[in-house]
Design goal:
The protein is of the alpha/beta class. It has one domain: Ribokinase (UDP-N-acetylmuramoyl-L-alanine:D-glutamate ligase, 3-Layer(aba) Sandwich), CATH 3.40.1190.20. The chain contains ten helices and 13 strands. The strands form two sheets. It has a nine-stranded mixed beta sheet with strand order 5-4-1-8-9-10-11-12-13, with helices on both faces. Helix 2 packs across helix 8 and helix 6 crosses helix 7. The relative contact order is 0.15.
Length: 319
């Protein structure tokens, strides 16, 4: 069994290259005291705004909170949201040199209207999700080629917002193979065929069921589903996150079931980001995959007790 204290002490020596769909999470927070006379909807009295890193940017924030150095390859528009996103990344110590600006599309922003009791009233998505092509795709691949040389792992965060195209994903997996480092993928159903050659993919149970057309509720079902998923994606291993049922890990050496560790669930938003960030960083630091999955499971149990896209620190994991 890995000495987790020793493993965590090696996190600051790792550099993780994140490739994926960065976005801005915007929270409009207020109180609800009445229903609108115009329509059967709550009236939210505005209190304040909050902006947080979302998508692949939240993955980067999780990695930084755990002590890693982070490089990120992603896409923004030439707009205020893009400027705010870059500034937020730089504030936590993530270089934005790998970001590509496409003046023809907007920066992805999710605006959530939330009550002071953390209840979500509505969400508005500002996005253009067509897959990158031509010059923009070539620019993203050039950044992967440049930054992968100094990385100890590559992490692909797919939110279906256009960056994780077949070509870009293939470039990330090829770079990891060339440098002899692990490559992890937080997948999406419609991109199943993109991930061949990845070290491990981390779908939730809904995604795993949709990809394989099999249930993953019981342990036996999860085992069969994970094995089928490995076959369909062409990946070496699969880690299925199963909510209150924990996680199921399938590797060439066998399967491992991990019970859920959450004591109190506040918000599952961004929990998948925490899982893949912790898993990737542990692999980069030399942990065997089952122990990396155990640590990721523990991190998930902590982060779902927090509101919105949140992070976990090494101190919290040690405690």
């Amino acid at each position: 069994m890995t000495d987790f204290s020793d493993l965590l002490s090696r996190f600051p020596q790792q550099t993780i290259l994140v490739v994926g769909d960065i976005m801005l999470d915007h929270f409009v927070i207020g109180s609800v005291e009445r229903i609108s006379p115009e329509a059967p909807v709550p009236v939210v009295r505005f209190a304040r705004d909050e902006y947080r890193l979302g998508g692949a940017a939240n993955v980067g924030a999780n990695l930084r909170a755990l002590g890693a150095e982070v490089e990120i390859v992603g896409l923004t528009g030439r707009d205020t949201d893009g400027d705010r996103l870059r500034q937020a990344l730089e504030t936590i110590g993530i270089s934005t040199s790998g970001l590509v600006t496409d003046p023809g599309r907007r920066t992805t922003r999710k605006t959530r209207i939330v009550t002071s009791r953390n209840q979500q009233v509505a969400r508005i998505d500002y996005e253009e999700d067509a897959e990158v092509r031509d010059e923009v795709a070539r620019d993203l691949i050039a950044q992967i080629e440049r930054l992968s040389a100094g990385a100890t792992a590559i992490l692909v965060s797919d939110y279906l917002k256009g960056v994780v195209s077949r070509e870009v994903t293939a470039a990330a997996i090829a770079a990891a193979s060339r440098h002899g480092i692990p490559v992890t993928v937080d997948p999406k159903v419609s991109h199943t065929s993109y991930y061949s050659g990845a070290t491990v993919v981390t779908p939730n149970h809904h995604e795993a069921e949709a990809i394989t057309h099999r249930r993953a509720r019981t342990d036996a079902e999860a085992a069969a589903c994970a094995a089928k998923l490995c076959e369909l994606t062409g990946c070496q291993s699969v880690l299925i996150t199963r909510g209150e049922h924990g996680m199921w890990l399938h590797t060439p050496d066998g399967d491992t079931t991990l019970p859920a560790e959450a004591r109190e669930v506040s918000d599952v938003t961004g929990a998948g980001d925490t899982v893949i960030a912790t898993l990737s960083l542990a692999l980069a630091a030399g942990a065997p995959l089952p122990d990396a999955a155990r640590l990721a499971n523990r991190a998930a149990g902590i982060v779902v007790g927090k509101f919105g896209p949140a992070t976990v620190t090494r101190g919290e994991l040690l405690k």
